[in-house]
Amino acid sequence: MASPIHVLGFAGSLRKQSHNVAVLRAAGDLMPAGMSLELYDLASLPFYNQDEDGERMPDSVREFKQKIADADALLIATPEYNHSIPGVLKNALDWASRPSGTAPTNGKPAAILGASPGGFGAVRAQLHLRQILASMNVFVLPRPEVAIPFVGQKLDEEGHVTDEQTREFLRAHMIAFASWVRRLRGE
Ligand code: FNR
Question: Which of 80, 128, 148 gets mutated to test ligand 1 (max ligand atoms within 8 A of its CB)?
Answer without folding.
Answer: 80
